[in-house]
């Protein structure tokens, strides 16, 4: 029993580490640059409306783009990493209500095998809009 009491602080310390996202590869950076070309970043938002006919584009295991229209794309840096997304696994977002919000639980899964391949959460949404004329 004493060993468990001594190890408990070490287990808690391991959980309090900081997360460092994996840097984008050249190919991933080029894909993101192409998708955001001509758009200007705005102030980050914690929630955005779930729009019909929109989709997430996976850039990496920790970066997504949420395209609303040709004139509006949100960039989202995931909290944690859903590594399976970069391999083409399916993204599953658990939301409450009509918005995607920071902290909404996201996971990746290989639908063929039925195995979950990653767990993360949505981060802040940075809007990229077409510049005003």
Topology readout:
Layout: H1 2-15, H2 26-36, E1 40-41, E2 47-49, E3 55-60, E4 63-69, E5 72-77, E6 79-81, E7 90-94, E8 99-101, E9 105-110, E10 115-121, E11 125-129
Antiparallel strand pairs: 1-11, 2-8, 3-4, 4-5, 5-11, 6-10, 7-9, 9-10
Give structural notes.
The protein has 133 residues and is an alpha+beta fold. The protein has one domain (23-129). Helix content is 19%, strand content 40%. It has helices at 2-15, 26-36, and strands at 40-41, 47-49, 55-60, 63-69, 72-77, 79-81, 90-94, 99-101, 105-110, 115-121, 125-129. The protein has a five-stranded antiparallel sheet with strand order 1-11-5-4-3, with helices on one face. A four-stranded antiparallel sheet has the order 6-10-9-7, with no helix packed on it. Strands 2-8 form a two-stranded antiparallel sheet. A hairpin with a 2-residue loop joins strand 4 and strand 5 (72-77). It starts with a helix and ends with a strand. 22% of the residues are buried.
Q: What structural keywords apply?
A:
133 residues; alpha+beta; 5-stranded antiparallel sheet; 2 helices; 11 strands
Q: Unreliable runs, pLDDT <50, ≥5 residues?
A: 1-16
Number of helices: 2
Please tell me the total number of domains.
1
N to C succession of SSEs: HHEEEEEEEEEEE
Overall number of strands: 11
> Mean pLDDT, as a whole number?
84
Identify the overall geometry.
Answer: globular
Helix vs. strand class: alpha+beta
Computed CA radius of gyration, to the nearest angstrom: 18 Å
N- and C-termini, Cα separation: 70 Å
Strand content: 35-45%
